[in-house]
Amino acid sequence: MTRTLTTEAGAISVEALHMTMRFGEFTALDDVSINIQAGSFHALLGENGAGKSTLVKCIMGFYHATAGELLVAGREAFMTDPKIAQSLGLGMVYQHFTLVPSLTAAENLVISRADAPGVINWRREREKLAQFMATMPFSVPLDLPVSRLAAGEKQKLEILKQLYLGNRFLILDEPTSVLTPAEADEVLGHVRALTRAGEITVLMITHKFREVTAFADEVSILRRGRYVGGGKVGEMSVEEMSRAMMGTAPEVSKRPRAATNGREIMRLSGVEAQDRTGLKTIRIDEISLKSGEILGVAGISGNGQMELMEVLTGQRRMTGGEITVNGQPFAATRAEARAHKLRYLPEEPLRNACAPRMSVAENLAFRTFDTGGNGRTRFWKDDRAIARNASTLIEDFKVKTSSPAARIASLSGGNVQRAVLGRELTGEVDALIVSNPCFGLDFAAVSSIRDRLVEARNNGTAILLISEDLDEIMELSDRILVMSEGRVAFETPIASADVSEIGQHMAGHG
Amino acid sequence: MDSVEIGLWGVPLAILGGAIRVSTPFIFVSLGECLTERSGRINLGLEGTLVFGAMSGYAIAYETGSPFAGVLAAAVSGACFGLLHGWICKFKGVNDIAVGIAMMLLGMGLAFFFGKPYIQPVAPDLPSINFGWWSDVPQVRAALQVNVLFILGGLLALAMAWMFRSTRVGLTVRVVGDSTDAARAMGLDPDRVRLLSTAMGGALAGVGGAYLSLFYPGSWTEGISSGQGLMAIALVIFARWNPVNCFWASLLFGGAGALGPALQSIGISEGYYLFFAAPYVLTLGLLILTSSPDRAMQGAPLELSLTK
């Protein structure tokens, strides 16, 4: 087998041989060998907990592997410290952003350099940055604080930063989990162009088959810490990959849909609010949500969906217009939400819908702890009822927690999401407002949450589903709205929905 | 010297003079706190540092006969207090605000303890520059007696703004103040940056204290600060963590503080104590006017325990 150790344009190869990593009794990584050739786009597939992160952290020197060796550009390297990886040209783009929010993109780039000058001559640095940007396939606004950039721009900036630092082997840790499909395609397309040009080698952690088949050259699959398959992407079918990754092919649930009566539950008319920058207003002329339907709101991130969600949950002040629920004005107070049986699953539930340091049981009781059976409020809390409620929900919604008394912040993202969904779906629910319910979750978790949503719909709950994942919208919705530039740009029933037409409206070409 | 009758003009003049005189300790303490907070930590102990700086500065100036040696001593003692605060806060589970309150009481206690013998003696004053030489009006001349430390404070505000924008040190402090994770990923040591920022902040607060005892009011007493260190910390928030704004806000505070004495000088003495409250009323009013129900605090360093 021929091996490319380096390319002319500077990409380098990395080879891990018989890597094993044990944490006490637990073997996170068991004799894994992978070979990533210079200038290739290599995908690392696996479920959550398959050992992908462990392998990558061993390569980057964050962990010291129990056994095994690492070859960088054909030479043995001892990664005892992340700085060694950096000095060899290995860089990593993390799932969460490591940019500094209040610094501008330019400041972020310059300060991340190890040889940042003591006194920064901004004129000269700016010229150099402009030269660097001219050689890159994509650009980002350099003078805005990073906090004002959209998720896609931040992700691009993270990649640019690695290239700016001169790294030639990039590890991308689920780079598209916070991006819309269009943004993801754009970013990955550019990354692939860079690998084709031999500028960089890329190892991408993912669990999306579509990204593997569309962009990667080669794939390695891990399951429970072992290497279970891999090879050239063209030579493996999605079924083969998925069988290797999951052990068996995933069950695709059919999700039967019952016919439901369509009584109007919620109506938004002329709702106005400031967007998060405070510079623009979003304006929703008319949205009507009916019982027993899933109304999908699609859109590229930063087009007002987050603000819409915040208005509906009462986190953002409305500057105009009216929301009515069951014909009565609605100001998103707890009492009103309770009276109208309206529930929420906001995005990032740990931040928006939980008290992170309180226990799982307490968090699960947020809707019920202050009511007695007769609908009146109660003064003393009933610990036994809270414990009962917690154990039922933990079991019903398959929340993996060490105990109901554990802090909810110690749960993984998928489990927090399921716990909050469980809480919000207990009792009678007339309307549920959900935002990006499946962000960053693995295949099994996504599937179980979607099953729950459809089940609630079939029981007559009105669901407003705000999501940046168009596949999710297409899969679940009965009716689709598209938001663009803070307005509802397009509406279609699912029967006549066409992805390319929706995509055009999302991009603002209606 | 003939007293020239200038009537109501005396009020704005007295306020101007007062602003320049009273604001200097505010400038130093708020710039010090601005630096510390930009690195992601709050040092409430600056009130204690200010008082100890006033005492040590006065004592050393008296012993050596040089007011500048006193200023230097105050800066060094302030830096020591800052280092202690920064070192304690490094430990896990330590709250910087609680440590700050303890440090405030410690600083004041130590200052009163060591300062007892220096209440009587007279130490040399810091020199000032007479910018009012062109005028015959004594009130004008009095108002324009500008102390060197005031000028230094103004230059320091500009220098610090430049530092935050265009030097590696400044950007490093901002990175640490905004995101500990990002700082670690860059290979920076957040605890060290915060330790040094707190030490530097303490040194500046010490200099502010030396101004109190060595120029205005110009002697060491136990009630010398009356909470100016704490007000300067509030002022940083009001100035939105911008050094140049800290300078202007300090001037505004100083001016408002001089309102009472200025009105008294033209014979309005009713409500004298009410006018003393002017800076506080002004702060409250301005904070309410510049706040917004929709936006979070702009410019606040994200690692600050205030904003978490």
Automatic annotation (TrEMBL), chain A:
Q: List the Pfam families.
A: ABC_tran
Gene3D superfamilies membership = P-loop containing nucleotide triphosphate hydrolases
Provide any one GO MF term from the record. ATP binding
Domain named ABC transporter: residues: 12-249, 266-510
Q: Which InterPro entries match?
A: AAA+_ATPase, ABC_carbohydrate_import_ATPase, ABC_transporter-like_ATP-bd, ABC_transporter-like_CS, P-loop_NTPase
The source's domain of life comes to Bacteria
Record field: transmembrane = none
Keywords recorded for this protein, A-Z: ATP-binding, Nucleotide-binding
What is the designated name of this protein?
Nucleoside ABC transporter ATP-binding protein
From TrEMBL, chain B:
Reading the lineage from the top rank, the first entry is Bacteria
Q: Where is the signal peptide?
A: none
Q: Name one GO molecular function term.
A: transmembrane transporter activity
Q: Which residues cross the membrane?
A: 6-32, 44-62, 68-88, 97-115, 142-164, 193-214, 220-239, 246-266, 272-289
Q: Describe its membrane topology.
A: Multi-pass membrane protein
Q: Which InterPro entries match?
A: ABC_transp_permease
Question: Which UniProt keywords are given for this protein, alphabetically ordered?
Answer: Cell membrane, Membrane, Transmembrane, Transmembrane helix
Entry GO CC: plasma membrane
Note the coiled coil stretches, chain numbering: none
User: What compartments host this protein?
Assistant: Cell membrane
Protein name (record)? Nucleoside ABC transporter membrane protein
Q: Supply the source organism for this entry.
A: Aliiruegeria haliotis
